[in-house]
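Pasting as-is:
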Amino acid sequence: MSFEELKKECDILRLDNHLLAYKNDKLQKRVEELENHQLENYHYFLKNENAELLRQNGDLAVKIKNLENTNNQLRQARENWIEEKRELTTEKERLVRKNTELENRNAELYAELLKEKESLTKANAELAEKVKALNAQNNQLVASLADQSEIDLHNKRLANENRDLKTQKEN
């Protein structure tokens, strides 16, 4: 190949190189435009995503606050329950002691009542014997009184007869 041909070919290659550089620049600009467009779209997407995440974060913050309030209420209720349980346990222990004291006192009173019952049963038997003796004595007195009544009646008749006789004598 001749120098001229080589020069021509070199010029053609330079033109092709310039053309390719131009096309490359155009493509590079297009790539940059697309990247910028994609970045803008991605930025818009991320901005929307960020807004949604911030909204969700706000919702979660409200839920967390509500859960903390509920937790505090439950903690307070638990503390109140523990205190009430402690008070009830103390009251139960006091009532158990009082019940034991009452059971002991009840046992003492029951023993006293049994002694008193035994004593009263014995006294009742003695009184029954005395009543029996008094009934026998009363029966004797009633019999004696009946005899006395007959004597008194007989004496009254005799006194009446004496009076009648005196009255007849005086007449």
